[in-house]
């Protein structure tokens, strides 16, 4: 096994973190899987995240993601319980 010094590991991690941070498509995919409460909190992370979360297209995509087919299937087959007859 090759041993990279701790200095090399931190440089690699920083480089990977920067690469992810600049990949807006990846950030959007991650944010689309979060709850509304988390999104409100994450607006404070950075100006970039605030702009993404506040964007109209993101809001529409987030609303569509919240209504996944499995959720719709459950909602369509829900029948209210009738009270005593």
Automatic annotation (TrEMBL):
Gene3D superfamilies: 1.20.1280.50. InterPro entries: F-box-like_dom_sf, F-box_dom. Residues 24-59 form the F-box domain. SUPFAM superfamilies: F-box domain. It holds the Pfam family F-box. This is F-box domain-containing protein.
């Amino acid at each position: 096994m090759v041993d990279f010094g701790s200095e090399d590991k931190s440089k690699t991690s920083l480089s990977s973190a920067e690469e992810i941070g600049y990949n807006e498509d990846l950030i959007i995919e991650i944010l689309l899987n979060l709850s509304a409460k988390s999104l409100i909190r994450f607006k404070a992370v950075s100006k970039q995240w605030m702009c993404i979360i506040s964007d109209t297209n993101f809001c529409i995509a987030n609303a569509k993601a919240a209504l996944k087919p499995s959720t719709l299937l459950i909602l369509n087959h829900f029948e209210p319980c009738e009270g005593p007859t």
